Amino acid sequence: MKHLLKRLAVVLIPVYVWFVFFAAFEPNNYFGFKAGASSSQPVARVRAYQKEPGRNLILGDSRFAHFDGALIAGVCGEEWQNLAFGGASMRETLDLAQYILDSGNPVDQMIVEVSFYMLNAGYDTDRFGALEETLQNPIAYCLNLEYNVNALTGLQNWLANTPDTIESGEWGPEDYFDADGAPIPVHRILYDYSALITPRCESWALNEQQFERIPQLAGQCRARGVQLTIVLPPMAGIVRETVCVPFGIEAQMENAVLPQLRAWAEEYGFALLDYEWGGSCVTDDDTQFYDGFHLDEVYGLPQWTRQLFGDVYRREEAAA
């Protein structure tokens, strides 16, 4: 038996080596061996919440995923935990909010993103069930091909000393021409964004099922004493002009969706902050937007962060 165990230990050496590599370079800090995750993937954000549940929470898609936590704390004097992740649909955002409330962990405040893009019935991804399974099953996480590729990429970046990239640009003259060489009014990444999202937006229809979950969430938050804030983030004017107006999205949002949100805000007592249709401090598309949805992390996002959290706390002070 002893010899068998020794042989088994030798046979398993490659497994040990692989696990050490994987635990060291997987970006989600699944096992908690590192100070924090280098990823904003959902598994990283929710895993961090499981280990240290915050009381002030941010939920949404990639537009909310890159807030500077130190800047937020400087504005409002409190720590906020960011659970937003790239590509989050309205369904997934509300599923995560429900998961938080069902966890029984104390929550003081919750900011939840809503936008015309997330409310589109044509964009209704549903990954939360698989996410929960992954969080409960370390073996499934370790054997997941995507996470192993992420770990390999992390190793390559470490060997090459590759710095972290952010969504920001110093645009030069060459960035102001389209694919045919014609001059354009804004930088190329922003200019091309409307065409990128058009396939999902040209047949836009309100996701009624997920939209109707908003007052349900608001009712639960009110019953639990959680201050809920629904936030519609800024979008570039070029998206509004070339996508929202021609496809009738602007009319549907302003005539139906926003009035209903305002009515629910009045009924359930949550704050509604509309920077998508109501305007914000972000007024220069070319400088402040990296693309049509995502604010430039140097020239746009910090300015809006100050406005957003200043408005959140001003609303609280007024209600006190």
Describe this structure in words.
The chain has 320 residues and is of the alpha/beta class. It has helices at residues 2-11, 13-25, 42-51, 69-76, 90-103, 128-136, 138-143, 145-160, 188-201, 208-211, 213-224, 237-244, 249-268, 285-288, 301-319; strands at 56-59, 81-82, 109-113, 227-232, 271-274. It has a five-stranded parallel beta sheet, with helices on both faces. The longest helix is centred in the C-terminal third of the chain and has 20 residues, at 249-268. It starts with a helix and ends with a helix.
Low-confidence stretches: none
The largest beta-sheet arranges its strands as 2-1-3-4-5
Order of helices and strands: HHHEHEHEHHHHHHEHHEHH
Q: Characterize the overall form.
A: globular
Query: What is the CA-atom radius of gyration, in angstroms?
Result: 22 Å
Helix content: 40-55%
Percent of residues in beta strands?
A: 5-15%
**Termini separation:** 71 Å
What's the tally of helices?
Answer: 15
Largest sheet: 5 strands, parallel
**Structural class given helices, strands, pairing?**
alpha/beta
Tally of strands: 5
Name a few traits of the molecule.
five-stranded parallel sheet; 15 helices
Describe what is shown at a glance:
The chain is of the alpha/beta class and 320 residues long.
